[in-house]
């Protein structure tokens, strides 16, 4: 008796999640320093120069407290 085990291989295509997030350049309102941060930052982002709070996590898109200079993809 010939037993052939034919397995159907499912090729699961992993779809890349559509990026709903991007990087943004924020200018510190306090000292004018510009720095790039993630728009969905999950941690507080502080200015590298004066330690001013620039972005705060909200669970989704971060609340930007500084001035958004540019949005990067
Ligand atoms: Zn600053």
Strand-helix topology:
Blueprint: E1 23-27, E2 34-38, E3 45-46, E4 53-56, E5 63-64, E6 67-72
Antiparallel strand pairs: 1-2, 1-6, 3-4, 4-5
The structure holds zinc ion.
Per CATH, the superfamily of the domain at 23-72 is: Ribosomal protein S27
Percent of residues in β-strands: 25-35%
The ligands found in this model are: zinc ion
Q: What is the 3D form?
A: elongated
In DSSP terms (H or I, runs of 4 or more residues), the helix count works out at: 0
Which sequence of strands runs across the widest sheet?
2-1-6
Structure summary, number of beta strands: 6
Proportion of helical residues: under 10%
- If you compute it from the alpha carbons, what radius of gyration comes out, rounded to the nearest whole angstrom? 22 Å
Give the helix/strand class.
Answer: mainly beta
Unreliable spans are none
- The top-level CATH class of the domain at 23-72 is Mainly Beta
Largest sheet: 3 strands, antiparallel
Chain-averaged pLDDT: 85
Termini gap: 60 Å
CATH topology of the domain at 23-72: N-terminal domain of TfIIb
The succession of helices and strands, N to C, reads EEEEEE
What is the name of the CATH architecture of the domain at 23-72?
Answer: Single Sheet
């Amino acid at each position: 008796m010939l037993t052939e085990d034919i397995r159907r291989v499912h090729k699961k295509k992993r779809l890349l999640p559509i990026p709903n997030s991007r990087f943004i350049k924020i200018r510190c309102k306090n000292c004018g320093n510009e720095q790039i941060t993630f728009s969905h930052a999950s941690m507080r982002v502080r200015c590298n120069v004066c330690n001013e709070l620039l972005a705060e996590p909200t669970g989704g898109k971060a609340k930007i407290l500084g001035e958004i200079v540019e949005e990067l993809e």
